[in-house]
Amino acid sequence: xxxxxRTLLLKMKEGEAELARLRSVEGDKLAQQDRSAxxxxxxxxxxxxxxxxxxxxxxxxRKVRQMIEQLQNSKTVIQAKDAVIQELKExxxxxxxxxxxxxxxxxxxxxxxxxxxSRGGHxxxxxxxxxxxxx
Length: 135
Known about the structure:
- 93% of the residues lie in helices and 0% in strands.
- By secondary structure, the protein is mainly alpha-helical.
- Residues 29-105 form a coiled coil.
């Protein structure tokens, strides 16, 4: 009977120790489940932030592409206008040369007319280049 008593006490202590260990393991499992749930929430929040940032990045990239396209279009327009300006400058230079040539020709004709009129006894007043330019 004392032997049986000791055996039962020993079994009871072993059972209590096992129960305490199981409770400890069970507590660890609950703590792990809580931590796991917390981590899942954090991961979901981070995924949402990443998705939002990706959307913002795509939007910015679209805006940059549109700005580049606008700049290229503006550059093309400016180049076309520069070409027109250059053509007009060349035309102006050509016309100025024509005007000079015409004035020289006019002065020669005036001079020849004066010579012929002076031979005939009539006087004619020669017009200067500046009078024709101012007209």
